[in-house]
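pinned: reference chain
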Amino acid sequence: MRHVTFVSTLILLVAAAGCGRPPYVVVDATGKTVGDVIRWDDRIPNYPLNAVVRYQVSGDDVALVVTTGSIRGTQETGGSVALFTTADCSGNDMFAMLSVPPLSKRYGMVLSGGNPSTVYFAPTQGWLFATDPLPARVDPGATVFHSQWSDPACSPYPAPGYVVTGNPLGGYWMHRIEELYAKYTRPFYFK
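pinned: its structure tokens
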């Protein structure tokens, strides 16, 4: 009985010490914090390949994936996922067809641009779009979309445009927040 109590106490002390550690963070080359780590890619346990971080947007968090050279959303673009009512993907609003949004108060998507060969690991631009807090899925109705973002560039739809039909899931309206690579300096690392 004594040994069971001792082992139980030891386990509690070890667990408490682990919980007392500040959260891991991802920082940029200048030491500026990108976000607290929610989870890292643990396929190779000795070092993280990428991390899902809590990124602050107006006091709330959006989940973003950070590697050494890029910041990405949790869902890729293309396939009519990131839709614009303009022909050149300009403007501050986008309709995003997120299949499985993360458990966060806001949802985010990063539109990456640059060389098509390197856009996934070294984009030259990364515009962050995010929803308002606690968004509800909506059907865009008869809204006509004239372009979609498909990394690394905008792809216009032929006239008369694209109308979302037959999709029971709907999507979320997002707003342009900031250009991430103007704010952060690569490489990013785990701290």
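why pinned: The mean pLDDT is 87. The chain has one domain: 24-190.
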